[in-house]
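Structure ticket #2291
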Amino acid sequence: MNDRPNKLSCSDCGVVNCYRREKEFPAFCLTVGTSSKEIDKTNKLYTNDETIAKISHAAAEIEGLYYGKLTRAEEIIAFAKKTGAKKIGIATCVGLMNEARIFAKILKAKGLESYCVICKVGSTDKTEVGVAEDLKVKKGCHESLCNPILQARLLNRAKTDLNVIVGLCVGHDSLFIKYSKALVTTLITKDRVMGHNPAAALYTSGFYYARLLEETDDYNG
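Resolution: structure written out below.
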């Protein structure tokens, strides 16, 4: 690949020829710009690394066999069974405990064990780690911080085979993934405004959420 980073990337492409190869690659295409040596080196991981091969093949099989047929929850169950995962960790947000309980029941019905850890585990007040009192959601009372690192460590201790995120906050999910020893996938992505359907904001960015496309620095704090 050229040592000089290209300013254009996949989000600038309207062709997506990399999928079916029915059109032509644009000049800036990352597939064209990546050396065959690098592509081959990466591809060998999918065939030569036993763990990666098992995971990637299971994901491809689920897509091929159940495309448009299974819900996300069912796909996770199918993935767990194809990869031999028997104990499923659930890292849940306190606001989605009911959903986590339902998912645990679904896992049990499908013959899988589950172990759930809530984000507020440890019950540490936010101010104890340096978060200002005025940045709490409800000020003047104990408000526990989200503790994704402890969630991950407790699931590691429980020796889960696969961990599933249920609505962890932006950033907290990143820390959980960083510290989890088991492979991580997501059942629910939190979006408090959109009822946990973040794609809805993208679909409505041309009208109801036009502010998303305004060039501002509103989120710098």
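Closing remark: The longest strand covers residues 87-92.
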